[in-house]
Amino acid sequence: MDMLFFDNIDKLGRIVVTAVMVYVLIIITTKVSGKRSTSQLNNFDWIVTVMIGSLGASTILLKDIPLIEGISAILALYIMQFLVTKYASISPQFSSFILSEPRIVFYQGQFLPDAMRDERLTRQEMECAMRSEGINSFDDVEAIVFESDAKLTIIRKPTSFDNKDADNQNNDERAESAVSETIAPLM
Description:
Number of helices: 7
Low-confidence stretches: none
Mean pLDDT: 82
Strand content: 5-15%
Structural class: alpha+beta
Number of domains: 2
Strand order of the largest sheet: 2-1-3-4
Largest sheet: 4 strands, antiparallel
Shape: elongated
């Protein structure tokens, strides 16, 4: 019970100094690495973020890990994340390998049970996403897409007001093609 609240001043001093240095390192590195490291996270970004947090905590609390080793590991992860995301932005094959694909889980009034089961989604989660978009009925929804960043995107059914056209094109055909453009790659 002696060490429950305090062990010794040297350990405390090391933890405080190391915490400040690791904090500054992570703030500067995140700023330099750009918006990608703080944007909505896909699975890959989330894993790297958790690893960086774990390395930061280990560097701060474990006296067996020298500061320079912890800093090196954190910097290596940031560099790897940069290189992997850079390559993914120029290689569609590599991108599809490391990132999950968006998936339609509701389409034209029908739940897609296989997709919902595979993604482990419930109707309640979709209803929650609809409420956050101000949609009260599935009748107003053309599709619900489970995105690569684990967010649910609600695609509203087009209304006749949305489809007014100076050229008097057939509104139903235009509405069908407008929705299809956003959903077609996922089918």
